[in-house]
């Protein structure tokens, strides 16, 4: 017994040692495996200053701005980030409209954008705070974008302005108001002072002949969109003083008024001075650094060729605003855009009608439906003797010989063409209105005729179909008739016979379509706001917001088209939803670049712009 008690028993010691080892294995496993898996260490989120990584090559997606960010997020990260955002809205036919290509600009390391007070005329809106969802705490690590807050406002169902906020730059007055104070210098041919009155609408029109409705009619100048649009923006219901939530940023620069002062008799330095001053001012603003200007837009109420000077020769026409790298990043709204460039967008010419209420529009539409139209077709214009390719002379000859055509011949002297009452009266009495190219692709007359419920007849796709894609249906046959210029020029097709072949019931449907388009083709009185209808301003702003929103989503999803060909910009607007590749098109002859003088492109931009000024001289009042 003593011998047995003096020695430890071996089996017990082995069992105790095994239990002790197992205990420590369990402790270490629980600490390093279970606890670490339930509480991961998240790396700090990386905030990107997008303007600091601008690529040097111009690439676009359906004329959308392209943005390449250094450090592409993983698929898991992108999926997690996009899961908290609303899915992109269903694309409309016009959603494929283009936006400026990106160009390398000075970058800023500070991507934060401070708040600032809106100009005194604006009612500032501060968006409700965004509530983070419980699931946000469990998202995968991801990269932040400077426009995250702007996209997140789409999620706030209680905010009627979610995803619609506009931030307006408070520009120095030399870029806008000072021009109006010196209004006599805005045009060499016309005293623009009276046309800048009434918030840019011009003097009220008398209605002695009963052609107009009782209210809302003004002698509006066709180049007054700068100030009309700017004043309408002051009434926009979703202005904000916090640019970090803005869906887009508006630059209230009167670009059209600026260049109109210096087109004749001034060297290129004078013509470019304000444009260079503007981009210098903008690029110093913190708002610019967020997207390098790709969320910025401005309005110029003139044709694009006034801003596309190709050289620095004083003999060349216009300014080079649209060729400045910064301006190429912005979107510029003009009354006629370039088929071959991606940073301008066409918006309607102003008409004479600027309603203050929905009821004014409804009354006018109903009146246009009930009119008796005694003329099959009509034309208001003058021949272009200095342009051998113009078909105007042939159209005038056909109209003169026809018993069902009404003709208003315009010349340099006194003419009924300069009378809004005479023009509108003719359009109201016609089923179809001929709209050949003006001195450039487009004419204000096209919008005056549609306002009168007259079905437009176009002869070049650049006159409307590839221009006003935000405001007109893609299916042009629903509201217009297309007769190729060569059918008139070379084959002498009879316009009268062509129009008579359209069945009366089809004509009725087409006219109703034209009348239904009226609200989106006119600019409401800037001093008021329509209750439910969307005017040309509303349609344009909505399209810009959709464009910028889509661009931002493409950036987040790394889904930009790297193969965009800017010279084919006009083709991209004709693609069906989801398509990205363009090829040969039946309209290629209309938009072939002028190389040997035999193309049907309408000539050089300088010639086009100068011809437009001749028209302005003819129409002075």
Could you please describe the fold and organization of this structure?
With 621 residues, the protein is α/β, with parallel strands linked by helices. The chain is built from 21 helices and twelve strands. It has helices at residues 2-5, 10-38, 75-82, 148-152, 177-181, 197-200, 225-234, 255-260, 268-283, 286-291, 325-329, 358-370, 392-401, 420-428, 445-451, 485-489, 495-500, 504-521, 536-557, 569-572, 605-618, and strands spanning 60-61, 64-65, 166-168, 248-250, 296-303, 331-336, 344-346, 375-381, 405-409, 430-435, 455-458, 481-482. It has a five-stranded parallel beta sheet. Helix 15 links the parallel strand 10 (430-435) and strand 11. Helix 12 (358-370) packs antiparallel against helix 18 (504-521). The termini are far apart.
Proportion of residues in extended strands: 5-15%
Cα-to-Cα separation, first versus last residue: 134 Å
How would the global form be characterised? elongated
Structural class, please?
A: alpha/beta
Total DSSP helices: 21
The total beta strand count reads: 12
**Unreliable runs, pLDDT <50, ≥5 residues?**
1-8, 34-100, 105-122, 132-141, 595-606, 612-621
What percentage of residues falls in helices of 4 or more residues? 25-40%
What do the pLDDT scores average to? 81
Major sheet size, sense and barrel closure = 5 strands, parallel
**How would you write the strand order of the largest sheet?**
3-4-5-6-7
Radius of gyration based on Cα positions: 31 Å
């Amino acid at each position: 017994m003593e011998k047995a008690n003096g020695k430890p028993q071996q089996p017990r010691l082995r069992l105790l040692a095994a239990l002790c080892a197992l205990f420590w294995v369990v402790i270490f496993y629980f600490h390093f495996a279970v606890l670490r898996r339930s509480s991961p260490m998240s790396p700090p989120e990386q905030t990107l200053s997008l303007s600091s990584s601008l690529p040097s090559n111009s690439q676009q997606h359906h004329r959308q701005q392209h943005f390449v960010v250094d450090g592409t997020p993983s698929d898991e990260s992108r999926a997690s980030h996009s899961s908290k955002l609303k899915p992109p809205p269903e694309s409309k036919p016009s959603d494929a409209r283009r936006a400026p290509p990106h160009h390398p600009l000075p970058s800023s390391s500070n991507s934060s954008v401070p708040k600032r007070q809106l100009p005194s005329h604006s009612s500032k809106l501060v968006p409700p705070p965004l509530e983070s969802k419980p699931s946000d705490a469990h998202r995968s690590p991801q990269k932040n974008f400077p426009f995250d807050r702007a996209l997140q406002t789409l999620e706030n169902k209680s905010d009627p302005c979610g995803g619609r906020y506009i931030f307006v730059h408070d520009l120095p007055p030399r870029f806008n108001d000072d021009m109006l104070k010196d209004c006599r210098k805005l045009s060499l041919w016309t005293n623009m002072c009276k046309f800048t009155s009434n918030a840019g609408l011009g003097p009220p029109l008398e209605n002695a002949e009963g052609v107009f409705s009782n209210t809302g009619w003004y002698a509006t100048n066709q180049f007054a969109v700068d100030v009309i649009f700017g004043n309408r923006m002051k009434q926009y219901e979703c202005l904000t003083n916090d640019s970090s939530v803005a869906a887009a940023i508006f630059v209230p620069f009167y670009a059209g008024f600026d260049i109109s002062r210096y087109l004749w008799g001034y060297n290129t330095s004078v013509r470019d001075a304000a444009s260079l001053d503007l981009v210098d001012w903008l690029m110093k603003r913190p708002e610019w650094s967020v997207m390098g200007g790709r969320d910025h837009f401005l309005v110029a109420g003139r044709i694009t060729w006034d801003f596309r000077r190709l050289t620095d020769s004083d003999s060349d026409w216009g300014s080079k605003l649209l060729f400045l790298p910064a301006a190429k990043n912005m979107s510029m709204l003009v009354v006629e855009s370039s088929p071959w460039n991606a940073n301008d967008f066409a918006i309607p010419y102003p008409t004479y009608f600027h309603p203050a209420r929905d009821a004014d529009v409804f009354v006018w539409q109903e009146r246009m439906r009930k009119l008796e139209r005694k003329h099959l077709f009509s034309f208001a214009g003058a021949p272009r003797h200095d342009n051998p390719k113009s078909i105007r002379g042939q159209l005038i000859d056909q109209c003169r010989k026809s018993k069902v055509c009404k003709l208003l011949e315009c010349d340099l002297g006194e003419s009924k063409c300069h009378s809004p009452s005479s023009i509108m009266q003719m359009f109201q009495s016609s089923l179809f209105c001929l709209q050949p190219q003006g001195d450039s692709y487009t004419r204000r007359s096209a919008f005056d005729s549609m306002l009168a419920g007259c079905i437009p007849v176009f002869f070049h796709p650049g006159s409307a179909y590839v221009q006003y894609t935000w405001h007109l249906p893609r299916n042009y046959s629903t509201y217009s008739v297309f007769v190729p210029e060569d059918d008139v020029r070379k084959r002498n097709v009879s316009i009268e016979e062509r129009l008579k072949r359209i069945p009366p019931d089809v004509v009725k449907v087409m006219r109703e379509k034209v009348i239904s388009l009226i609200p989106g083709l006119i600019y409401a009185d800037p001093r008021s706001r329509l209750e439910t209808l969307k005017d040309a301003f509303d349609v344009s702003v909505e399209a810009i917001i959709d464009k910028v929103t889509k661009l931002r989503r493409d950036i987040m999803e790394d889904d930009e088209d790297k193969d965009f060909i800017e010279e084919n910009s006009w083709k991209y607007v004709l693609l069906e939803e989801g398509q990205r590749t363009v090829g040969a098109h039946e309209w290629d002859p209309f938009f072939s670049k002028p190389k040997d003088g035999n193309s049907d492109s309408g000539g050089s931009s300088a010639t086009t712009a100068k011809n437009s000024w001749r028209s302005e001289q003819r129409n002075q009042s």
